[in-house]
Amino acid sequence: MSDKQRVSRRQFLNYTLTGVGGFMAAGMLAPMVRFAIDPVLTPQAAGEFHSVAPVEEITNEPQRFEWQVEQVDAWYESKVQKTAWVYRNKDDEIVALSPICTHLGCTVGWASNQEYPNQFYCPCHGGRYTKDGVNVPGTPPTAPLPVYKTKVQENMLYLGETQSRQGA
Amino acid sequence: MQWTKRDTKQYLPEKEYVDTVLIPIISFDPASDNKMTKEAFQRELNQVFATLIEKEFKGRIFLSPEYYYLTNQHESEIPRVNQWVEHFQKQPFEHVFLFTFDAKWKKYESDLNGHLLWIPGIADGDLQSTETQSFVKEQVKQVNELIQAYW
Ligand code: FES
């Protein structure tokens, strides 16, 4: 193979790759620009909060609240049901926990097993969490239940994204 | 778990924990004008149920692709249903549930190699209405308890 040929092939590749890269960059930038220009157009922007419940309904006992969000997942746009266990802790702060077991994703219940009236219980493999959502060692889950970001506005509780926490 | 790339990838290394499979059994007859709407509704309803059950027990239940058959052909379908069950048991799934609104399966229950989960469902309705939704939620809760009784 002559040198000249090799160079030209590399050049050719370079050109095409730059072209493809350019397209990709444009594809990535376009929505970003739209985000920046018009936040109203972007219901799925990260960090969004959804109204979940009036604050006066929140007690010291965890209660299950449900709400719906529009989720854009690649090609589908769908309504997804979200759930949280919400209560006031000893310091009167509102705590909202994700009900998704950190083991393999079943939905945990508060006090749903008679033997553990003060814990979250996972029906799938007996995973357990204390009231603050921390996993009980010796049960399958290795991390606490994620917590939702919370915000209170005009007596309504709003929940945002969940944050994972370190294992117990 | 669902029959998707993401879930099957998660399933394989954790299969010891996922010991239950739910197969939705759905009838339809594209030749029949007067059954079509009802059957389409039943199919949607079955999907709503299956998704809710799977969501509740994601880490232990595998939701199979739907099993479709032509309305009223129960007897001839039995070998094929059992073949599905057999293949799932090779994984191995210990508990196999066949989930249907078609009461006629009751008659053949003993010929089926899985647990028949027949519930009456609702004949007709609007899936978006709040009454239907709360009714379905209540029924799903009961099905969930039924499934747990087998574990
Ligand atoms: S999914 Fe909760 S303990 Fe396994």
Would you give an account of this structure?
Chain B: This is YpiF family protein. The complex is a heterodimer of chains A (168) and B (151). Chain A has 168 residues and is α+β, with helices and mostly antiparallel strands. In chain A, a hairpin with a 2-residue loop joins strand 2 and strand 3. Chain B is α/β, with parallel strands linked by helices and 151 residues long. Chain B is built from four helices and five strands. In chain B, strands 1, 2, 3, 4 and 5 form a five-stranded parallel β-sheet that branches. In chain B, strand 1, helix 2 and strand 2 form a beta-alpha-beta unit. The longest helix of chain B is centred in the first third of the chain and has 24 residues. Chain B is globular and about 45 Å long. The interface between A and B is small, with 11 and 11 residues.
Q: How much helix is in the residues of chain B? A: 40-55%
Number of DSSP helices of chain A? 1
The outline of chain A comes out as globular
Summarize model confidence as the mean pLDDT of chain A: 82
Largest beta sheet: strand ordering of chain A: 1-9-8
Protein name (chain A): Ubiquinol-cytochrome c reductase iron-sulfur subunit
Organism (chain A): Halobacillus amylolyticus
Transmembrane segments (chain A): 12-33
Pfam families (chain A): Rieske
